[in-house]
Write a structure and sequence with these properties.
Number of strands: 0
Distance between the termini: 77 Å
Order of helices and strands: HHHHH
Shape: elongated
Structural class: mainly alpha
Radius of gyration: 26 Å
Oligomer: single chain
Length: 137
């Protein structure tokens, strides 16, 4: 009987310990003022589907070296890739639905390669892109 009481006490103690009240020191919280940030938006040039694929291809090819150089150009290249992808994604979904996931994988790899500074992921994204783009042309 004693062992059952001990196990019951051990099981119930954490439950009572978790029921304490939470105190929040308001002086430590950040103020809720909103900061407006100005972002310059560039206009996307009119390109054909094929031209967007060429831009993505060339940009992915350059991305690995830009990550290694670590001079900030990788962010610009990634923005160019994503800009072209956003311009053609709807058409890829409509006309090449089977390839959409592959393109999506390429974009995720490209983003991760810049975010984590992994040139190997950029190279992998470019090689995957070459295969997918060849399948739809």
């Amino acid at each position: 009987m004693r062992i059952a009481h001990i196990f019951l006490a051990i099981a119930v103690c954490p439950m009572f310990a978790a029921c304490g009240s939470t105190y929040i020191d308001e002086s430590l919280l950040e103020s809720s003022t909103t900061v407006a940030e100005t972002v310059e938006v560039t206009e996307v040039p009119d390109r054909t589907f094929s031209e967007h694929l060429d831009v993505i291809d060339q940009s992915l090819n350059d991305l690995s070296d830009a990550i290694v150089d670590n001079n900030g150009s990788a962010d610009v290249i990634l923005a160019t890739i994503l800009e072209s992808w956003n311009s053609i994604e709807a058409q890829v979904k409509a006309d090449f639905a089977d390839s959409h996931f592959g393109f999506y994988e390429v974009m995720v790899l490209a983003e991760l390669s810049v975010e984590r500074r992994r040139p190997a992921d950029a190279s992998k994204a470019w090689k995957l892109f070459i295969d997918i783009a060849a399948a739809i042309q």
